[in-house]
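Chapter summary example.
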Amino acid sequence: MHAKMEKHILFVDDSPTMRSSGSFCLRNAGYRVTEAVDGQDALQKLQSMKENDQSLSLIITDINMPQMDGITFISRVKETEFKFLPILVLSTEGEESVIEKGRAAGAAGWLVKPFQPEQLLWAVKKVVWPK
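The structure predicted for these 131 residues follows.
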């Protein structure tokens, strides 16, 4: 057991730059981060977290990714044990129709790239530390 309950976040983005800047920002704020390169990779990581009994507090995902896009990924997560996990979308997509699809699939929040680190941390805090 950890003395301090570390919040663990799965960060899914096909851009290495986005992954490293997002993860850096989150780790600096004291979160534990696991990175995934696309929806399929992320589902595999979720599976191994389940097998290793690791807890997860949040998923942050991009929408436009190869292999499996974010909307499909979100709906797939909702079919797993992780279905109650909050999912934040971090995407260049700011279109209402896409956001609607994301919400319908189960996204808890939506941030448009490029993001400010404080925006990201504020959104994460809002869903990870509910009142």
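To summarize the output: The CA atoms of residues 75 and 104 lie 9 Å apart.
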